Amino acid sequence: MQSYPLDLITLLHIFSRQRQTGELVAHEVRVPGSRKLGRAYLMLIDGNVDMASCVITIDKNVVLKGIDAFQHLQKAGVLDWVYTAQQPGSPASTMPSRNPAPNLRGSVQGSRFPVRILVVSAEEFESSPAPLLYRSVYNMSDGEKSVEEIALLLRKPIEMIEEILASLYRHRAIDLLQYRRQDGRL
Predict the structure, then answer these.
(1) pTM: predicted TM-score of the whole model, two decimal places
(2) CA nearest 186: which of 80, 95, 86, 113?
(3) Which residue in 23, 62, 78, 96 has the most C-beta neighbors within 10 A?
Protein backbone atom coordinates (compact mmCIF):
# COMPACT_ATOMS: atom_id res chain seq x y z
CA MET A 1 0.00 0.00 0.00
CA GLN A 2 1.20 3.46 -0.90
CA SER A 3 -0.16 6.83 0.18
CA TYR A 4 -0.61 9.75 -2.24
CA PRO A 5 -1.64 13.20 -0.91
CA LEU A 6 -2.92 14.52 -4.27
CA ASP A 7 -6.03 15.78 -5.98
CA LEU A 8 -7.91 13.13 -7.96
CA ILE A 9 -7.10 14.47 -11.44
CA THR A 10 -3.35 14.56 -10.80
CA LEU A 11 -3.50 11.09 -9.27
CA LEU A 12 -5.40 9.68 -12.24
CA HIS A 13 -2.91 11.18 -14.69
CA ILE A 14 -0.11 9.32 -12.88
CA PHE A 15 -1.96 6.01 -12.74
CA SER A 16 -3.25 6.20 -16.32
CA ARG A 17 0.28 6.62 -17.66
CA GLN A 18 1.44 3.63 -15.61
CA ARG A 19 -1.71 1.64 -16.52
CA GLN A 20 -2.13 0.57 -12.89
CA THR A 21 -4.85 -1.81 -11.70
CA GLY A 22 -5.95 -1.72 -8.08
CA GLU A 23 -7.96 0.08 -5.43
CA LEU A 24 -7.86 3.73 -4.32
CA VAL A 25 -9.30 4.76 -0.95
CA ALA A 26 -9.49 8.17 0.75
CA HIS A 27 -10.63 8.13 4.38
CA GLU A 28 -11.40 11.78 5.18
CA VAL A 29 -13.74 13.12 2.50
CA ARG A 30 -16.06 16.04 3.25
CA VAL A 31 -19.60 15.34 2.12
CA PRO A 32 -22.13 18.14 1.58
CA GLY A 33 -24.92 18.11 4.15
CA SER A 34 -23.02 15.98 6.67
CA ARG A 35 -20.80 16.85 9.58
CA LYS A 36 -19.16 13.44 9.44
CA LEU A 37 -16.28 12.68 7.12
CA GLY A 38 -16.81 10.04 4.47
CA ARG A 39 -14.68 7.39 2.82
CA ALA A 40 -14.14 7.35 -0.96
CA TYR A 41 -13.49 4.16 -2.86
CA LEU A 42 -12.78 3.51 -6.52
CA MET A 43 -11.20 0.82 -8.67
CA LEU A 44 -8.61 1.39 -11.37
CA ILE A 45 -8.38 -1.00 -14.26
CA ASP A 46 -5.37 -0.44 -16.52
CA GLY A 47 -5.18 3.13 -15.23
CA ASN A 48 -8.84 3.93 -15.86
CA VAL A 49 -11.53 4.49 -13.25
CA ASP A 50 -14.32 1.93 -13.15
CA MET A 51 -17.25 4.34 -12.66
CA ALA A 52 -19.49 1.61 -11.29
CA SER A 53 -17.06 1.14 -8.38
CA CYS A 54 -16.82 4.83 -7.46
CA VAL A 55 -18.61 5.41 -4.13
CA ILE A 56 -18.46 7.68 -1.08
CA THR A 57 -19.71 6.20 2.17
CA ILE A 58 -20.40 7.48 5.68
CA ASP A 59 -20.61 4.81 8.38
CA LYS A 60 -20.87 2.10 5.68
CA ASN A 61 -23.87 3.83 4.05
CA VAL A 62 -23.44 4.90 0.43
CA VAL A 63 -24.08 8.65 0.10
CA LEU A 64 -22.76 9.23 -3.43
CA LYS A 65 -21.99 6.76 -6.19
CA GLY A 66 -20.97 6.57 -9.82
CA ILE A 67 -20.66 9.82 -11.73
CA ASP A 68 -21.91 11.93 -8.81
CA ALA A 69 -19.24 10.52 -6.48
CA PHE A 70 -16.53 10.95 -9.11
CA GLN A 71 -17.47 14.57 -9.80
CA HIS A 72 -17.56 15.34 -6.06
CA LEU A 73 -14.08 13.85 -5.66
CA GLN A 74 -12.79 15.93 -8.57
CA LYS A 75 -13.85 19.09 -6.72
CA ALA A 76 -12.65 17.91 -3.29
CA GLY A 77 -9.06 19.06 -3.81
CA VAL A 78 -6.15 17.27 -2.18
CA LEU A 79 -7.05 14.06 -0.37
CA ASP A 80 -4.81 11.43 1.17
CA TRP A 81 -5.31 8.49 -1.21
CA VAL A 82 -4.14 4.99 -0.33
CA TYR A 83 -3.44 2.75 -3.31
CA THR A 84 -3.46 -1.03 -3.12
CA ALA A 85 -2.29 -2.77 -6.28
CA GLN A 86 -4.00 -5.87 -7.62
CA GLN A 87 -1.84 -8.82 -6.69
CA PRO A 88 -0.11 -10.49 -9.64
CA GLY A 89 -1.79 -13.71 -10.57
CA SER A 90 -5.09 -12.82 -8.90
CA PRO A 91 -8.01 -13.45 -11.22
CA ALA A 92 -9.22 -10.42 -13.14
CA SER A 93 -12.79 -11.57 -12.65
CA THR A 94 -12.66 -10.52 -8.99
CA MET A 95 -12.08 -6.93 -10.06
CA PRO A 96 -15.13 -4.97 -11.20
CA SER A 97 -14.79 -4.17 -14.86
CA ARG A 98 -16.42 -1.86 -17.29
CA ASN A 99 -18.42 -3.31 -20.12
CA PRO A 100 -16.80 -2.93 -23.53
CA ALA A 101 -17.86 0.05 -25.61
CA PRO A 102 -21.49 -0.48 -26.46
CA ASN A 103 -22.60 -0.97 -30.00
CA LEU A 104 -24.32 2.34 -30.61
CA ARG A 105 -25.66 1.37 -34.02
CA GLY A 106 -29.35 2.05 -33.92
CA SER A 107 -29.08 3.75 -30.54
CA VAL A 108 -31.63 6.30 -31.67
CA GLN A 109 -34.36 3.72 -31.14
CA GLY A 110 -32.94 3.01 -27.67
CA SER A 111 -32.25 6.73 -27.09
CA ARG A 112 -28.94 6.97 -25.28
CA PHE A 113 -27.87 10.18 -23.56
CA PRO A 114 -24.09 10.70 -23.41
CA VAL A 115 -22.70 12.47 -20.32
CA ARG A 116 -19.15 13.67 -19.59
CA ILE A 117 -17.42 11.83 -16.74
CA LEU A 118 -13.86 12.95 -17.26
CA VAL A 119 -12.97 16.63 -17.11
CA VAL A 120 -10.91 17.49 -20.17
CA SER A 121 -9.75 21.08 -20.33
CA ALA A 122 -9.53 23.08 -23.54
CA GLU A 123 -5.73 23.02 -23.20
CA GLU A 124 -5.71 19.22 -23.04
CA PHE A 125 -7.87 19.03 -26.15
CA GLU A 126 -5.61 21.53 -27.93
CA SER A 127 -2.57 19.38 -27.18
CA SER A 128 -4.31 16.16 -28.21
CA PRO A 129 -4.77 14.83 -31.72
CA ALA A 130 -8.57 14.84 -31.20
CA PRO A 131 -10.26 16.56 -34.13
CA LEU A 132 -12.68 19.43 -33.65
CA LEU A 133 -15.67 17.13 -34.17
CA TYR A 134 -14.58 14.95 -31.21
CA ARG A 135 -14.34 18.05 -29.02
CA SER A 136 -17.77 19.21 -30.14
CA VAL A 137 -19.37 15.83 -29.41
CA TYR A 138 -17.63 15.70 -26.01
CA ASN A 139 -18.82 19.22 -25.13
CA MET A 140 -22.41 18.38 -26.12
CA SER A 141 -22.42 15.24 -23.96
CA ASP A 142 -24.38 16.71 -21.07
CA GLY A 143 -26.80 13.88 -20.31
CA GLU A 144 -29.68 15.93 -21.68
CA LYS A 145 -29.09 15.60 -25.42
CA SER A 146 -29.63 12.25 -27.10
CA VAL A 147 -27.28 10.80 -29.69
CA GLU A 148 -29.78 11.81 -32.39
CA GLU A 149 -30.01 15.39 -31.10
CA ILE A 150 -26.21 15.74 -31.09
CA ALA A 151 -26.08 14.47 -34.69
CA LEU A 152 -28.77 16.94 -35.73
CA LEU A 153 -27.12 19.89 -33.98
CA LEU A 154 -23.75 19.11 -35.56
CA ARG A 155 -25.35 18.30 -38.93
CA LYS A 156 -23.44 15.03 -39.18
CA PRO A 157 -24.63 11.50 -39.95
CA ILE A 158 -25.71 9.68 -36.82
CA GLU A 159 -23.36 6.80 -37.65
CA MET A 160 -20.39 9.19 -37.44
CA ILE A 161 -21.55 10.54 -34.06
CA GLU A 162 -22.09 6.99 -32.77
CA GLU A 163 -18.53 6.08 -33.77
CA ILE A 164 -17.10 9.14 -31.98
CA LEU A 165 -19.18 8.43 -28.86
CA ALA A 166 -17.96 4.82 -28.83
CA SER A 167 -14.37 6.09 -28.96
CA LEU A 168 -14.97 8.63 -26.16
CA TYR A 169 -16.63 5.86 -24.12
CA ARG A 170 -13.64 3.53 -24.58
CA HIS A 171 -11.35 6.35 -23.39
CA ARG A 172 -13.62 6.85 -20.37
CA ALA A 173 -14.36 10.46 -21.22
CA ILE A 174 -18.13 9.88 -21.34
CA ASP A 175 -20.72 7.44 -20.11
CA LEU A 176 -24.05 6.61 -21.73
CA LEU A 177 -27.23 7.04 -19.75
CA GLN A 178 -30.44 5.19 -20.58
CA TYR A 179 -32.61 8.12 -19.50
CA ARG A 180 -32.40 11.86 -20.08
CA ARG A 181 -30.86 13.73 -17.18
CA GLN A 182 -33.55 15.97 -15.67
CA ASP A 183 -31.67 17.82 -12.91
CA GLY A 184 -29.41 19.87 -15.22
CA ARG A 185 -26.30 18.82 -13.24
CA LEU A 186 -23.05 17.55 -14.65
Answers:
(1) 0.48
(2) 113
(3) 23
